[in-house]
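WARN no homologs supplied; continuing
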Amino acid sequence: MASATMVILCPQNVTRHPKPFFSLHKTTTTLYPIPYYSSSTRSSSRSISLSAATSRAMEALIFDCDGVILESEDLHRQAYNLAFAHFNVCCPPFNEPLNWDTDFYDVLQNQIGGGKPKMRWYFKENGWPSSTIFVTPPENDIDREKLVDTLQDWKTEKYKDIIKSGSVEPRPGVLRLMDEAKASGKKLAVCSAATKSSVVLCLENLIGIERFQSLDCFLAGDDVKEKKPDPSIYITASKKLGISEKACLVVEDSVIGLQAATKAGMSCVITYTSSTEKQDFTDAIAKFPDLSDVRLKDLEELLQNVVAA
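OK structure emitted
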């Protein structure tokens, strides 16, 4: 089976790039060349790849939130742009509020996890902005953190308003898989790089308060020092669950999440979105367009049948 070939720039490499890979102008956002190649074959059904692991039994099922439980990235993008407009965030040399368009945000969110790291990276690469928070661009770390914190807090509240509107539905198959896992005695967890308040709201509104409260482990970006692709969140989850990382199966939607899971020693399946489907998921044990036709027994068999490549 043909697999996608794509080179992703990790955040530490991105920040050393000699120039940003986009223009700042809100109507003319342009990506500079990045090694980014799509698959020659687009799969509309499940495709399975083998990873270098040993056969194992599943004891815990761990879900990412954004992109897995809900297709959220464009909602986040809209909320960021509303925050930039509200605080008149203008990066030099432009006098109009910053606006992240869809094409740019797809690249950004697939390379840098977490909202604050996204803004820190952007402002570091393109110049810290003027705003109603600081009339002149902040020049010291304390003021820069205040700017990022203020923007993130306002953006999070706006994102909550979108979620509470009732217009957002969970992705297909998620609720059924969660119920199957609990009914079979598996541990169930959610690990998200987003802020805790944002994730709690999403889960309460999308999976319901009863399912949320029945989770055996819930971790958000606030709970660990390093964001995905760092494996900290999954290593912490394994310890809290009291289960070996080899007995955990992670459901992710992006290469950042996949890297975090595999670095933690966990197997991972991918349920990709329109913005992540062309990423290189070679290290995943399976990938699906969504979870509508995936049963718990399918995931158990995948984990049991993983063999050394």
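The radius of gyration is 20 Å.
OK
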